[in-house]
Description:
Blueprint: E1 10-12, E2 18-20, H1 32-44, H2 55-63, E3 67-71, H3 77-89, E4 93-97, E5 116-126, E6 133-141, H4 163-166, E7 185-189, H5 190-196, E8 199-203, E9 212-218, E10 225-231, E11 239-244, E12 265-272, E13 278-285, E14 292-294, E15 304-312, E16 327-333
Amino acid sequence: xxxxxxxxVFRQDSTGATKPLYSRIGDNNQFWGxxxxxxxxxxxxxxxxxxxxxxxxxxxxxxxxxxxxYNSSLVSDAEAYSAIKAANDLNYIxxxxxxxxxxxxxxTCGIANGHAYTIISAFNxxxxxxxxxxxxxxxxxxxxxxxxxxxxxWTRNSASWTxxxxxxxxxxxxxxxxxxxxxxxxxVEDSLFRTCFQDFQIGHYRDGDGYSxxxxxxxxxxxxxxxxxxxxxxxxGDLYIKTDSYHHASIPGGVCWGxxxxxxTVRLQVYKNSMDNEVAGKTYIEGIHAPIxxxxxxxxxxxxxxxxxxxxWAGWYDWRTHPFSDxxxxxxxx
Length: 334
């Protein structure tokens, strides 16, 4: 539980007007975003520590759900659209990130480098018969509330936006409105998405289906291989297994986040009913989340899973004297 007061940070702009320094006041004078941001800053130690980081971190911190990271260069246009469209139809949480670099610069699509974006929707535009798919689009939002997207055939002034196509845009958004009127929303065709965005993220948020988090905290890990067992009394749906340690910039630099600023390496393995029966395994850098999903078709009621976790702690410290070698094992399930 994180408790904060309602003292918030403001500044004066060049005109002398008083405005929030970070998150903005929402519609109808809503301040909840600014208060949530303050809680996040308190968790990480300061507002300065919240600058930068990873989309996966923000998504999993705010929702607790498992978040899967995808490198755009490792999938095709069709694979990216299929994955994102399927996730969108399940009301999962979606994000995308641009190549690293100063966010004061832009890429070939005219959007900020080194920046995080929300994917609001992935949707089809149909012919007059209502069944023939003519175009596949992403509705994307810049959290700054502005955008200068210049790529592709679906910019604000594009003649591609016929009256019939406008009527098919989700959430009653007018794609021909100014970006500021649409609060930073723009549209990207599926063939351009991987050019504009280096990666994308899918958060399997399923709390509405009865999913919740169970966890175990491991403190003072010695860098060895730790094995945990979990008995599943019923088959109520998919199981998600993941681990994480400290958030980006929440502890002194060069400790857990010393190698390429992406955190320690994790080896996560899952066995079913016997340590001789490995059913899933991943080795990954913690900054890029890689949960393991066990679908409901892959286990039965009464099965026991053995979960092996091994961290290779990064940074300037030897693991034997590492001051922050702690992690949490999560299981997201019904």
